[in-house]
Design goal:
Elements (H helix, E strand, L loop, with lengths): L2 H8 L12 E5 L2 E4 L4 E4 L2 H4 L8 H11 L14 H12 L7 E5 L2 H16 L3 E5 L8 H6 L3 H4 L9 E4 L14 E7 L12 H14 L2 E5 L23 E4 L10 E5 L1 H4 L18 H16 L6 H11 L7 E4 L4 E4 L3 H13 L2 E2 L1 E3 L2 E7 L7 H17 L1
Parallel strand pairs: 3-13, 5-6, 5-7, 7-8, 8-9
Antiparallel strand pairs: 1-2, 2-3, 4-10, 9-10, 11-12, 12-15, 14-15
Helix pairs in contact: 3-10, 4-10, 11-13, 12-13
Bound molecules: pyridoxal-5'-phosphate.
The site of pyridoxal-5'-phosphate has 15 residues, from α5.
Length: 393
């Protein structure tokens, strides 16, 4: 059996149509397969590789840490320098009230940890989330995602969850003194990049403050420069009580986090002690990689180039068959009439060396979320291939 057959035979599949490309090398915004064919990466591991694949600062930091130690002990017991250094750097780049970082393995685990934390801190049980939001695939996170197709088969899910319409001012009246927290994506990514109005985000913040519930913003996909500012929430003039991080947080290594004020985070320390337990959360190699990636993002001012690259994409993505283009920095949606049309175009793009895909809750939309430092030449080439694919589809 060849690698592809072994993959299909022994690596558990959750769909009948995996991409099944055998990638043997990745660098910057390019992937190469086993036959030497190259692909311009317009997905970046779903907003993970924001500074490109295998940035030298990241691979260097990983090698250095591997020579010191790997896993030592469950989370939070030893003073592990990579964790400390990253938590320190991260909080220096966040508002003062977001000063305590709990590192997890993944975005979903960050969601789970935050859901537990808000219950402990507020002694309330109701969690409010939004229709068409995505926060992860574990049971707790699944309970709050806003799409019945993806939730239904796993019922019973967590009780006490209320879903509201995103960006609806009227719906905010359902937030009450019984609400432990409201969890929202700063920009709804998997719905096909829907940004709320500034007025709504500010009203949401106000309502949470008035009712004493915590505002949790999921920046797992919108963080680390993706939308043109380091954090998405900066664009709305508000500060959340807790943020969820993941994806680009680890610089290509697995890492998530929920970040809050120390006075909130302290509620995990008693009754019961060890309010959230994780063996591998904040793995030293992941933290070393993530810190190097975030430093590169900042020091090379990669976020500063996002708006110009977004503009270049938008100027090139014009075709009568495109129904709409939406964007929040380098999180771009190209909407077609149907999933079938989108899938045909995506397959043609992959055949011609451009890697893209669709959104979970918006299958008729093509995802364009490349490394943030993709070059203008790569953008021009990739868009040319997309337009050719649309003409052929
Ligand atoms: N939240 C958002 C907004 C996401 O996009 C994702 C993943 O796509 C998650 C949470 C879950 O992260 P993970 O897949 O690391 O569990």
């Amino acid at each position: 059996m060849n690698q592809r057959q072994l993959f299909l035979q022994h690596v558990a599949q959750t769909s009948d149509a995996p991409l099944a490309l055998e990638i043997v090398k990745a660098e910057g915004s390019t992937l190469w397969d086993a036959d030497g064919k190259s692909f311009i990466d317009l997905i970046a591991g779903i907003s993970v590789c924001n500074i490109g694949h295998r940035h030298p600062a990241v691979t260097e930091a990983i090698k250095k840490q591997v020579d010191q130690y790997l896993h030592l002990l469950v989370y939070g017991e030893f003073v592990e320098t990579p964790q400390v250094a990253y938590a320190h750097y991260l909080t220096q780049h966040l508002p003062g009230s977001l000063n305590s970082v709990y590192f997890t393995n993944s975005g979903a685990e960050a969601t789970e940890g935050a859901m537990k934390l808000v219950k402990r801190y507020t002694s309330r049980t109701q969690i409010i989330a939004f229709n068409q939001s995505y926060h992860g695939s574990t049971q707790g996170a699944l309970s709050i995602i806003g799409d019945e197709y993806w939730r239904n088969a796993y019922r019973p899910l967590l009780p006490g969850i209320l879903h509201l319409n995103y960006n609806s001012l009227n719906d905010l009246e359902h937030i009450t003194t019984a609400t432990a927290c409201v969890i929202a994506e700063t920009i709804q990514a998997e719905r096909g990049v829907i940004a709320p109005s500034k007025a709504w985000m500010q009203a949401l913040r106000k309502k949470c403050t008035e009712t004493g519930c915590l505002l949790v913003l999921d920046e797992i996909q919108s963080g680390f420069g993706r939308t043109g500012t380091l954090w998405g929430f900066e664009q709305f003039g508000i500060i959340p009580d807790i943020i969820l991080l993941g994806k680009a947080l680890g610089g290509g290594m697995p890492l998530g986090a929920f970040v809050a004020d120390k006075k909130i985070m302290r509620s995990l320390t008693s009754n019961p002690v060890l309010g959230h337990i994780t063996t591998f959360g904040g793995h030293p190699v992941s933290c070393a990689a993530g810190l190097a990636a975030m430093k590169a993002l900042q020091e090379e001012n990669i976020t500063g180039g996002v708006k110009a690259k977004e503009k270049l994409f938008l100027s090139l993505l014009k075709h009568p068959q495109i129904k709409a283009v939406r964007s929040a920095g380098l999180l771009i949606v190209v909407e077609f009439e149907s999933f079938e049309k989108n899938k045909t175009i995506i397959d043609l793009c992959i055949g011609s060396g451009v890697l893209t895909d669709w959104f979970l809750f918006a299958p008729e939309c093509m995802r364009i979320a490349p490394p943030l430092n993709i070059s203008d030449e790569e953008i021009i080439k990739a868009c040319g291939i997309i337009i050719d694919a649309i003409n052929k589809a």
